[in-house]
Amino acid sequence: MSEISRRTLIASGLAVAAGASGLVVSAKLAKRYGLIPPDAGGVYGPGETLTYAAQRLVGSHSMAREFSRSQISTNPFANEVDPLGDEFNRLQAAGFVDWRLTVDGMAARPTTFSLAEIKSFPVSSQITMIGCEEGWTYIAEWTGVPLSYILDRVGALRQVRYVVYRSIQPDWWESIDMADALHPQTLIAHRMNDAELPVPFGGPLRLRVPRQLGYKSVKYINHLTLTDNLKPFGKGTGGANSDGGYAWYAGI
Ligand SMILES: Nc1nc2c(c(=O)[nH]1)N[C@H]1C(S)=C(S)[C@@H](COP(=O)(O)O)O[C@H]1N2
Ligand SMILES: [Mo]
After folding, report:
1. In a domain, 251, yes or no
2. Whose CA is nearest to atom 12 of ligand 1?
3. Is 250 domain-assigned?
4. Ligand 1 contact via 214 beta carbon (within 6 Å)
5. Which residue segment(s) compose the domain that 8 sits in?
6. Torsion on CA atoms 133, 137, 139, 144, rounded to nearest 10
7. Looking at the structure, do residues 96 and 124 belong to the same domain, yes or no?
8. CA 80 to ligand 2 centroid distance, Å
């Protein structure tokens, strides 16, 4: 069977199963075809599994919607963050010259980059919407280094399945699979609306993942780990938010 007709078949099978016999059947079907999010001991509900399976069947190259310049929000809402702490304040006072992004784990060349190095790499820009699970959204232009460029640069090993990204805020970390990590719209953003990324919006560095909800776009990132297993991190669900009961896969 050709790849396309196989996909069509699975996709319609999932849809029929979801409609006719309930989500549990479609979750079983998804599992059979390897379309389940990383397992965390059964905490993923069938609804999340179906979203993940449907997204991955549609293909990893589907793009988040991009907007025109005139649609950029004039008053973007920066979600309030907990106090950033002495270390952050010290780095900020020095203009972030000592900010570092460490990349380790399954890489041929684990590297710690300075902010200046990150800013010297090729950039990509996108005008996309960010949405919080609490209901508000805004549209902005983000500019930054595609995460795929960094993965290439450090020689990510073939076995890597997830990128875990951490923030200077110990309680803020998340992970994505390779479909999102290598996606052209996934950026290590350092500019917003044609200016340096402001601190309330995650400056100096923020991971921007426009195909997922806002909580996956972690601000103040300083550490990436390439791995094939999410279990050793936190409670093992793949992120601070999923450890707290939210969906690991927050595709939109
Ligand atoms: N480090 C860090 N990253 C974070 C958060 C945070 O509190 N700390 N909040 C998250 C949540 S819940 C959302 S919805 C978005 C909000 O993005 P914004 O501040 O640009 O509106 O950032 C996400 N990234
Ligand atoms: Mo959020």
Report:
1. no
2. 215
3. no
4. yes
5. 3-59
6. -30
7. yes
8. 10
